[in-house]
Amino acid sequence: MAKGYWIARVDIRDPERYKDYVATAKPAFEEYGAVFLARGGDYHRLEGQVRARNVVIEFPSLQAAYDCYHSAQYQKAAAIRQQVADAEMVIVEGVA
């Protein structure tokens, strides 16, 4: 079974309130087996537009990645994130 990945590109407008997003999202990430492979840090633009924060999260399956995003717990967190940050997020299937 192929793993699932969230890929997120984020510009944070309110760093203090973003901490509330992180805290609220944590239980959902734990429940669905999320492993952070990249979480912010240094980056180098190669092509196209960039955002300040780049995140890659691995899940045990594509379904787990989907279920985590749509869970009630993560949707509480997403509501906070959407107020304090601009982001693009996708779920992709890994190579089996």
Kindly, what is the distance between the CA atoms of the first and last residues, rounded to a whole number of angstroms? 6 Å
User: Largest beta sheet: what is the strand line-up?
Assistant: 2-3-1-4
User: In percent, how helical is the residue content?
Assistant: 40-55%
Note the overall shape. Answer: globular
Count of helix runs: 3
Radius of gyration from CA coordinates: 13 Å
Q: Number of DSSP strands?
A: 4
How would you characterize the largest beta sheet?
A: 4 strands, antiparallel
Mean pLDDT: 97
Order of helices and strands: EHEEHHE
SS class? alpha+beta
% residues in beta strands: 25-35%
Low-pLDDT residue intervals, each spanning 5 or more residues: none
Descriptive tags:
96 residues; alpha+beta; 4-stranded antiparallel sheet; 4 strands; 41% helix
Lay out the secondary structure.
Layout: E1 4-12, H1 15-31, E2 35-39, E3 53-59, H2 62-70, H3 72-84, E4 85-93
Antiparallel strand pairs: 1-3, 1-4, 2-3
Helix pairs in contact: 1-3
Can you offer a commentary on this structure?
- The structure is a single chain.
- The relative contact order is 0.37.
- The model has no long low-confidence stretch (mean pLDDT 97).
- The protein is an alpha+beta fold and 96 residues long.
- A 4-stranded antiparallel sheet has the order 2-3-1-4.
- The protein contains 3 helices and 4 strands.
